Amino acid sequence: MSDLPGPGAKAPTFSLTTPAGAPVVFRDEPVASTLLVFFKHDCDTCHLTLPLVERLQNTLSPAGLRVVGISQDGTDDTARVVTRHSLTFTVALDDHLEVSADYGFDAVPALVLTGPDRAILASFEGFTRPDLRNLTEAAATACDTKPPHLVHDGDGLPEHRPGCGSKVHDPDVARRLAVRRGASTLGARRSTLDARRSCEIPDGSRSRSTTTRSSSCRRRASTTVYRWCRPPRHGCSACSKARGALPRTSWPTSHPISHRPPSRK
């Protein structure tokens, strides 16, 4: 369920940077209205919406509308989007997704129109013609001008198109954001494992207890394993009966193995 704030709520403040490193700050603004547009590069609905936002910027910016695009991508992907649509409004990077999380939307594009005191006038996510029309009228009213016609007859735009999932819902990103906000913690625990395995020798003789130590483990963790003697030792009747007389080189020697002669009862 989306938590995108609606009309009457206060839009969260933020401080970001452009791909060129220039600061972009949003707080109480001395402008008639501010439009925030969240997007990402691999979203078809974003590519449908951004040209319309550019038209709105060109029409209402002389009357006091400020438009800020907020990209969920890095510098390179954001630059490609700006070039593709010839965007002239300010675009900031939210590649850490902190601001996107603050605004609580589920999908992009997400549009938020605010007044000079950050009070939200209109907001929606995805694309619908009625929502875009209402936002355009609210922006024109705030700028004390007539609403422009953004959708032209030859555009072939659909009446509705759902947005694309916000990157904040990626499992790895969601865990990282939860840790940053103190809603979750990362931790680890140490466990001691005692792996034991029992093998039966075919002739009914008892198994041998041998100890192996991993040469690749710097912590020198040892494990007790029950198996036949390796390599077979002369004088061990269980080895010779179960395995036969094999040369010493036939057995792997990567782990040192201690030999214990068969116990007698």
Describe this protein with a few key phrases.
single chain; Glutaredoxin; five-stranded mixed sheet; 2 domains; 265 residues; 25% helix; alpha+beta; globular; 13 strands
Number of extended strands: 13
- Would you identify the CATH architecture of the largest domain? 3-Layer(aba) Sandwich
**End-to-end Cα distance:** 72 Å
- Biggest beta-sheet profile: 5 strands, mixed
Order of helices and strands: EEEHEHEHEEEEHEEHEEH
How much helix, percentage-wise, in residues?
A: 10-25%
Radius of gyration: 34 Å
Q: What's the CATH H-level homologous superfamily of the largest domain? A: Glutaredoxin
Q: Beta fraction of the residues?
A: 15-25%
Number of domains: 2
Structural class: alpha+beta
CATH classification, class level of the largest domain: Alpha Beta
Q: Provide the low-confidence segments as ranges.
A: 197-201, 203-228, 242-246, 249-258
Widest beta sheet: strand line-up: 5-4-3-7-8
Shape: globular
Q: What's the total helix number? A: 6
What is the CATH T-level topology of the largest domain? Glutaredoxin
Give the integer mean of the pLDDT values: 80
